[in-house]
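Why predict the complex rather than its parts? Because the way molecules touch one another can change local conformation, and only a joint prediction can capture that. The input here totals 424 residues.
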Amino acid sequence: MLESTAMIDEGLKSELQKQGVYVTSLQELYNWGRANSVWPLTFGLACCAIEMMAASMSRFDLARFGAEVFRPSPRQADLMIVAGTVTKKMAPLVVRLYNQMPEPKYVIAMGACAISGGPFKQGYNVLKGIDRYLPVDVAIPGCPPRPEALIHAIMTLQEKIRNQALTGPNRPRHLNADIEGEYPVPAYGQNDLEPPKNSEVWQPPPIQR
Amino acid sequence: METLEQIQSRLAAALPSAKIEILANECAAGERSLLVAAASGFTVAKFLRDDAQLRLDYCSNVTGIDWPDKELTEKTKLKQLVDGVEKEVEEVKKTFRPGYLEVVYHLYSMALKHGPVVLRMRTENRADQTHLPSLTPLWRGAEFQEREVYDLYGVIFDGHPDLRRILMWDEFVGFPMRRDYVAPDDYEYEPTPHDEVLVEAKKHYLVEPKAEVKA
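Output of the joint prediction:
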């Protein structure tokens, strides 16, 4: 049923299009729909959230790219934009929000803090990147990134969705019943979160000199 | 507004048992403050709030300060006769100052449009006697700030309605804003370490860098 577009000859496809016949595959159609209805979660942690708001407003107008319907409930959202510093106190709540989102779901780590802890990396209360607990699809560097960068990240995510094969080992999470749906929520420890990272998602970089 | 000396003398008349001291400030602003003993802190603060001439009805800020144990050196020049010749000799006097925690309140009057009066209180030490009276019953706005001082410095405010950690999680152990707090070692690879991070990074390098061979 869900055969890849490689089955159709590209030349034949464009030739048919010139004659007014549009040939597509179910996968292409399915991904086209998926990519253009990304609903982000209204959810900000720090100053990056201000840029996220600006991106959704009239000047930058995220709506042009099919990702403008910010939902205030995780049950209705399928994109989590981690916009800002994730403190260790906040991290379990972020993971819980992610678990509450229905599949298919994606994560954008917006800004230096969400990627690595940013300027607060050496602090005692800041998580050194949300990728310790969640599978991040797109990371946006910047402090904070401009709205154009967020729009670019959403376009990158759409590109990723469009090129995803619906069958095979790299099929989307919601079509793979073997993938664990929930990520473990870390507990508060005496100095750090327990565990400090989800080893299935993230491994620390080797220390080089 | 009255000067601090006037306030101090009126406080001494109204509350004879209270120990109040005026602390000088050497910085450019020169904002001096009232240092009150912890035992009489609450009554002094209540006087400052209710007095008709002061009416300090607004507590704008509560701050904690950690003063660790310190050896103070005082140098004095003395003239002495050495081998029949008069010479200046420096005498170094060392005194040990035990550490303490300090809480600073900035008080203003909204009614009379004056302020600030800076009020300070100090704990006995930094280890087991870190109790101070809470001023939240007098100024409700101090509640969260006193919780923050408790959370980060470990000052225990007696009489606080809800003394819990506010920024760190409840299970957290330690008081991270104290000078001697050592954060747990969770160093990770840094591509461009510098300053303190470089010192930290070097502890984790497995192989020592080879010394340059000098010709």
